[in-house]
Automatic annotation (TrEMBL):
One of its GO terms (cellular component) is cytoplasm. Belongs to the FAD-dependent oxidoreductase family. This is FAD/NAD(P)-binding domain-containing protein. Pfam families: Pyr_redox_2. Keywords: FAD, Flavoprotein, Oxidoreductase. It comes from Sorghum bicolor. Residues 9-285 form the FAD/NAD(P)-binding domain. The keyword Flavoprotein applies. SUPFAM superfamilies: FAD/NAD(P)-binding domain. GO terms for molecular function: electron-transferring-flavoprotein dehydrogenase activity; flavin adenine dinucleotide binding. Putative FAD-dependent oxidoreductase. InterPro entries: FAD/NAD-bd_sf, FAD/NAD-binding_dom. The keyword Flavoprotein applies.
Amino acid sequence: MAGAGKKARVVVVGGGAGGSFLAKNMQGHADVVLVDPKEYKEIPCAELRSMVEPSFAERSLIYHKDYLKDATIVTSSAVNITEDAVLTADGQSLPYDYLVIATGHAFTTPVSRAERLKEFQRDNAKIESSESVLIIGGGPTGVELAAEIAVDYPGKKVTLVHRGPRLLEFMGEKASKKCLDWLTSKKVEVLLQQSVNLGTLSDTEKVYKTSGGETITADCHFVCITRPLSSSWLHDTILKESLDSKGRVMVEKDLRVKGYNNIFAVGDITDIPEIKQAYIAHKHALVVAKNLKLLINGLPNSKLTTYNPGYPIALVCLGRKEGLLQFPLLTLCGWLPGKIKSGDVFVGKTRKEMGLNG
Ligand SMILES: Cc1cc2nc3c(=O)[nH]c(=O)nc-3n(C[C@H](O)[C@H](O)[C@H](O)COP(=O)(O)OP(=O)(O)OC[C@H]3O[C@@H](n4cnc5c(N)ncnc54)[C@H](O)[C@@H]3O)c2cc1C
């Protein structure tokens, strides 16, 4: 632990929704180190809008250095954890007094912000130059992408193939039905309980066979399936016994990792039974920031704040003006939920939370 006069060292592994917010909140209160292979934080809600409007990503891809003025940023992946240090892929050993695991989902995007911007431009060029688009996956990402294309490019033929029996399976059946009706009204063809063999996909082949024997012709395709958790790197660390069978980090109510007094976890990587959303990762980050400050100030473990999952609220964008909102007892579709998210897709709000101009 930090000696007299020396600030406690907090290492945060993962600079996504939860980790970046936590690191920002701990600046000034501790010697903060953020470890992330990417040089930037991405506001996930803006990903699909940026595919139809690439300049949108200028505000949603934020350099870590822009909001972390009083912290050390290590641009590398964490590969191991010992009792007192995090080891990184570029060979560094980062000692910690407190550690926070926030590695969410495995990243597949470029490590450079400039490259990520180019990726959005390439995606957009692909959409612009295609008369027909196939989207594989009917979760929130596939649905939001289908809606963005249907609204911005109404002349293009959009087909959405989903393996499951209904769209947006993380929401209720009412929401799935409203979503299907909305997409159908925008002339999106939705094929349920069918899949496309991902192993046979190529950028030149324009004919796709589904598992149901249907043939789809499309000028391009986008794969929108759930990414795996970024927890495989934890299997050989001291935390291996703290992972559940799905690779999630098991946490106590105060968000400390089971079996550890000085290691916390936040966001999608945790085993808390709730929907996995960025706004929830933020809530975790606030609880952990509070608990870290209490511990740093010498308060006992018994004084730590606990995290209570609230009512699950899910909100999906349907293009620029409409949306689909699910409260526990009410599901709304149309312009009213659209007013909450679909215009700016929470970019201004998130930037303000990170201390930046909206
Ligand atoms: C397209 C899309 C749209 C979404 N829209 C919404 C929305 O509208 N509203 C909402 O609330 N939620 C939304 N979500 C969900 C939301 O993105 C996640 O719930 C949230 O990002 C989880 O935050 P996190 O901090 O746990 O992990 P992530 O945001 O996934 O961040 C993980 C970070 O860890 C880093 N990392 C991974 N492995 C390592 C390693 N070994 N070492 C160091 N760093 C590592 C990654 O680079 C990344 O920066 C959306 C998700 C997607 C994919």
